[in-house]
Amino acid sequence: MTKMMESSPQDRGTATDEDTPRQPSALTGPRRLTGMSRALPLAGLVLLIIVYTIAAGDRFMTFNNWANLVQQASVVAIIGFGLTFVVIAGSIDLSVGSVAAFSGMAAAMTATGHGSFMGVAAGLGVGAVCGLVNGVLCSLFKVPSFIVTLGMLSVARGLTIVVSDSRSEPVSGALAWMGVAPGIYIALGCAFVAAFVLMNGTTFGRYTRSIGGEERVSALSGVPVRLVKVAAFVVSGLLAGLGGVVLGGQLGIATAQAATGFELSAIAAVVLGGTPLTGGIGNVWNTAIGAFIIVVLNNGLVILGVAPEVQQVIQGVILVVAVFVALDRSKIGIIK
Question: For the packed helices 262-272 and 96-114, what is the interaxial angle rounded to 10 degrees?
Answer without folding.
Answer: 120
